[in-house]
Design a protein that fits this description.
15 helices; alpha/beta; 14 strands; 41% helix; 7-stranded mixed β-sheet
Length: 388
């Protein structure tokens, strides 16, 4: 990040910009006049130091005696001065100090998925330590209220989370604005720094594990293939029309082991959606799989719930594998012998951290580092050999 101004000239510039930003404006209603914000120069005058010394006392850098620092802080407290005006700092630096985060779905849906929340935690941890702020931004195709439109959001860099082809209009806007882009789990996006996860290979490992246990009748419960949030079987035409990168990669991974595996699309990543898919799978008048690969842990929990409701035992009658490795706290686990889900554990926080580091590097003119992460298969209580 940029270093604070250290010279007298720079401090005077900051002071002038603060005064300009805080100068009182004429209003017709005296009750609406807000008190003028004290400036750094006024603090320096009361403390009996130069403005540059006052600036260094606040920044924590440079040779400032403890006595001078104490006088500056005391004067600031007396005047009600909380530090350099962020608006003035933005003018001096020529940027906002904000990293935008774009989700490829409606925000109300995105934050129902714990993985999105944990990935955002990783972004916030690194960005916050560097003094940057985060701004949730909606894409051009999201008409939801409560998020800032992408076209005029004040930000220096953008992290795309859960991207697919639907995000193309957003990328076009960012290119026009010449804003650096980091893409988490996306297909190739020209000019964007990729942060990848081994979705296909990890899903293939889970499928191979079920194959080694002896399972032949395996069904996939998929995340949405696009923004339409449909439910139902995935045939060849539907799969070919899919655009959700993560969903398709995980589907292809399982199909690498079970080419003819039945696949069912869920309308979202939630326990309820998993329950809906599982209810169709375990209908008494249809063929039932001996194993299910769910593309998220919350979908897997819903599938298990549906299996229990259908009178099946997990894992004796049906094995279930999830994806993510989140902490599952569901009431159904408390009434069964299940203590841990068999799942693929992904490093969601580390993905967010890597994305934030790449964004910050681009802001500093450094070479951003792409990253690729591996998921680990964790064997739990929800998988076993199939019944004879």
């Amino acid at each position: 990040m940029d270093e604070p101004a250290t010279g007298p000239g720079a401090s005077r510039t900051e002071h002038l910009r603060e005064d300009a930003a805080d100068a009182p404006r004429a209003v017709t209603d005296p009750a609406r006049v807000r008190p003028r914000r004290p400036t750094l120069t006024e603090v320096a005058r009361v403390a009996g130091v130069a403005p540059s010394t006052a600036s260094l006392a606040f920044s924590g850098s440079g040779p400032v005696s403890e006595d001078a620092k104490a006088r500056v802080l005391a004067a600031a407290a007396e005047l009600g001065y909380g530090g350099p005006d962020p608006r003035a700092r933005s003018l001096r630096r020529g940027r906002s100090g904000v990293i935008g985060v774009v989700m490829d779905e409606r925000l109300s849906d995105a934050f129902r998925d714990p993985v999105n929340v944990l990935t955002l935690d990783g972004i916030a941890e690194v960005a916050g330590a560097a003094g940057a702020s985060l701004l949730l931004v909606r894409s051009p195709l999201d008409d939801e209220q409560g998020a800032v439109p992408l076209v005029d959001a004040p930000m220096d860099a953008v992290v795309l989370v859960g991207c697919n082809v639907r995000i193309d209009p957003a990328v076009a806007v960012l290119r026009r604005r010449q804003i650096p882009v980091v893409a988490i789990e996306a297909d190739d996006i020209e000019g964007a720094v990729p942060i990848q996860l081994d979705n296909r290979e990890a899903s293939r490992r889970a499928a191979a594990f079920l194959r080694d246990l002896g399972h032949e009748a395996v069904t996939i419960v998929s995340l949405p293939l696009d923004g339409a949030h449909r439910r139902g079987p995935i045939d060849a035409e539907r799969e070919a029309a899919g655009i959700a990168f993560t969903s398709l990669e995980r589907l292809r991974g399982v199909r690498g082991v079970y080419p003819d595996a039945v696949a069912i699309e869920a309308a979202g990543s939630s326990v309820e959606e998993g329950r809906i898919a599982g209810t169709a799978l375990f209908a008494p008048d249809g063929p039932r799989p001996t194993a299910v690969v769910a593309q998220s842990d919350v979908l897997a929990v819903g599938v298990i719930s549906a299996a229990l409701d259908a009178g099946l035992r997990v894992p004796e009658d049906v094995s279930v594998v999830g994806f993510d490795g989140i902490t599952v706290d569901d009431s159904l686990f408390h009434r069964t012998r299940i203590r841990q889900l068999t799942t693929l554990v992904q490093p969601f926080v580390q993905k967010g951290q890597a994305a934030a580091r790449a964004a910050l590097a681009m802001l500093e003119g450094a070479e951003p580092q792409p990253a690729a992460f591996r998921s680990e298969l964790r064997i739990g209580d929800t998988t076993a050999t199939p019944r004879a």
